[in-house]
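User: These chains co-purify. Model them together.
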Amino acid sequence: MHPFTGFALLPPLLLLTLRLADAWALAALLGVLLVLVCMGGERAVRLRRWALLMLPLAAGLVLVHGRFLDSLIFGADVSDRMARLDAAALLWLRIGCLIAGAQVALRLAPPARLTRALFASRLPPSVAYLLASPLLLSAQLRRRLAEVTEAQRARGVDPAAPWHQRARALFALAGPLVVWTLSDVGERANALDARAFRATARRTTLDAPVFTACDRALLAAALAAFLLVAGSWLWH
Amino acid sequence: MNPLFSTRTLTLMSAGIAFNMVLGQLASMLKLPIFLDAIGTFVVALLAGPLAALVTGVATNLIWGVLTSPVAAAFAPVAGVIGLVAGLCARAGGFRTLPRVLLSALLVTVAVVVVATPIRAYLFGGATGSGADFFVAYLNAVGSKLIESVALTVFGVNLADKVVSALLAWTLVRALPARLTATFPAAAAVR
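Assistant: Joint model of the two components:
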């Protein structure tokens, strides 16, 4: 499947989660989306990512909207606690559905394929470059950061020292990385210009992801779902 | 028609986005209680101006949204306003001396509060699942409205982060060799 197809499914999902006002309906939708997350590859990583975001958020929403500190510290009587928590639960379910839907879409767009799809897309070359090149560059920077950290460790910088020493280490670690990368900026720009960057609207990309009939059908389905949900909202 | 950004500025913005993505990792590696996810935006603001920094900030969060979760994408306007205000401050000479850098960081934090508070209060119900939720709940308990509690918490959480980010970016750009900064015609004065 083309990496962009998954993202086309998100707008109707967003509209649907906003449209549904019943907690049980949202819980059912969330259940379906979580099953979809579990069905693909990297299920443990994606489920963990969802849980790491949603479980602390649930605790935060209960703390803020349940007003437990009012009762605990000030002895206040919070009579509308359940109504507040109901509203918070609805919000949590909506966010949970969107995050789960995004995990399903992201599974279809691993960074390497997304980069190729962006370079091969009909987006203006500068926009495609700006969105795709950081994905490539950040992998290089992570390797460089590991090298800089090793080098600075050998010179006595201790990433496990007390916090004020760690804060001082920040410049020693970030400095070489930033200066190193900024020195490359000119070379990268010259290399791009030398290869007629932006001279033509389309570029040739080796092994570009193919937009199949299945992708077209899914896009049409996503558009139809979006119009249906938007229409039902406007109708009521 | 001339493109909005030169190729050199585009490659700088790409590097800025990558800094934002990687230096956040550095903060967690050093176990520092700050985000450091806007240093690249500050560097671009100093070297290429407010518009390039705005685009850098927005693109960073959109890419984060694609790579991890849409929560980062929801805060893209916040990242954009950091770049815009930092760039405007840099243009106005706000990064020439240490006190001016601190004032610029304060202005950036105020702008962050203005943009981030409604997103956090209305889109996420005032909670984000971090330790800051406790302060929101506490301020709520002592009588502040939810939006006020969120605004105060966002200000407190972001002030230290933006001061450190602005100082680090300023120090790094000051340390760059003159032959390198000379290749960026829109670079702001840093001394």
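The CA atoms of residues 6 and 105 of chain A lie 4 Å apart.
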